[in-house]
Specification:
Blueprint (H helix, E strand, L loop, with lengths): L4 E5 L3 H12 L3 E5 L13 E4 L1 H10 L2 H9 L8 E7 L4 E7 L12 E4 H9 L6 E2 L4 E7 L2 E6 L4 E4 L1 E4 L6 H6 L6 E13 L1 E2 L2 E2 L8 E6 L5 E7 L5 H7 L12 E9 L12 H11 L5 H8 L7 E7 L11 E3 L2 H4 L8 H22 L3 H30 L4 H18 L7
Parallel strand pairs: 1-2, 1-11, 2-7, 4-15, 11-19
Antiparallel strand pairs: 3-6, 4-5, 8-9, 9-10, 12-17, 12-18, 13-14, 15-16, 16-17
The chain binds flavin-adenine dinucleotide.
Flavin-adenine dinucleotide binds next to helix 1, strand 3, helix 9 and helix 10.
Amino acid sequence: MAKISVAIAGAGLSGLCLAHSLLRTGFDVQVYERDPAPHARRQGYRITVDGYGLAALQRCLPPHLFKLFLATTSPTDETGYFRVTNHQLGEIFRLTFKGDPSGNDLRTPRQADRQTLRAIMLEGLQDKVHFGKEAVRAETASDGATLHFADGSYIQASVIVCADGVNSALRKQLLPDCEPEDTNSWGIYGRTLLVQNGRSLVPDRLKTSGVFAMGPSSRGFFFTTMRFREAPQTAFSRFGVDRIPPITDDYVMWGIVLPKEQSPKHQGKWSNEMLLRFAQDITRDFHPVLQSFVDRADVDSTMAVKLKAAKEPSTWPVSRVTFMGDAVHVMPPTGSHGGNTALRDAALLAEKLEAAVIQGEALEKAIGSYQEEMSHYAFREVKSAKAMLKRFTIKNPIIGWVMMRAIPRIRSITNKPLTSE
Ligand SMILES: Cc1cc2nc3c(=O)[nH]c(=O)nc-3n(C[C@H](O)[C@H](O)[C@H](O)COP(=O)(O)OP(=O)(O)OC[C@H]3O[C@@H](n4cnc5c(N)ncnc54)[C@H](O)[C@@H]3O)c2cc1C
């Protein structure tokens, strides 16, 4: 295979996934990351990886890293649930997901710690990922493209892939009409050690549930548990990965969704302590179990995010520069599809570029076909995530009363409370 060079801006989920696949098939790949070091920012939340995400990781990662990834995901042996409740954990409805005791069925979604996954994906790319390189501009030409950095340097490659996340500088330059729109909602996220003083903070009946509790004033509280199938330190050494895993203990990931007008003013200047105190104040109306997650949270892992939704490009010219993941199709976290779609993009783009080289076809043809196919599934996910966010932040008082009072009361006649042992 002729050496084709690919420069990727952004060493996040999609950038690293693509890099692995292209390297394995003989491309010359370099990844440029703005952060000064691998774990410069705490991004220690868990993500639900679904069939698409699992298929992409299986396709792109070297087999031993994919096995290591599976070993560090949550167990799938028990039946899982997604429950929608009122703020006092009175159930409104639930979805049931069949368990898979073997853990081998890659259609079964599972929880993964994002930081652990990223550490696994950095393995083997030590000399390919360049930290402290903030991409600011890309230029395309007929036979390649140039990527410019904030430090004044630049590189040239056959193809440039912009995987620089939700605030993509390259999107602002190259797709200026598709800056994401504000959903008028904010998320405050945190992480809390699952077992404290020898006791699990999550009641037994909710151990395998993701819960979204609809609260007063259009606020919502989400939580789920990240339990490692195998202790990350044991799994890393079993697979010969000589790194200290970034996260070693099981935890609860929680998030509060709130309307923009209730969000903290001048939040950019807030310390994590201030943000966590704010989160404690606005969850006082919620069930004590939910309050305890915020009260006992890890201060450093608390973060606030403006929830945005991408706009589909009206025209997306095909050139030697293309986009993947949140940089082009960010979506609210409702539905858990942002990362899975980003991983799916990486696998699809890898497949198209690899096939073009093998068949001697123009790279533009591969990129055009990728952009068309990706737009189709990705913007469908953006639309459904936006619709789901709207459904969970009810503004109509009558619907609110039915959902948050009437249904949970009727269901409580026949069902045991979710917090009972
Ligand atoms: C709390 C939370 C929970 C979530 N849960 C889920 C879930 O359950 N399931 C799911 O599918 N998704 C989930 N997501 C969404 C998911 O994390 C993102 O969609 C996913 O990380 C996007 O991957 P990406 O590769 O596009 O971007 P990212 O993973 O964000 O990576 C972008 C990278 O680019 C770097 N960068 C930024 N600017 C530049 C620049 N100018 N030059 C160079 N590098 C740059 C960044 O530092 C970063 O490393 C969640 C998100 C949050 C915040």
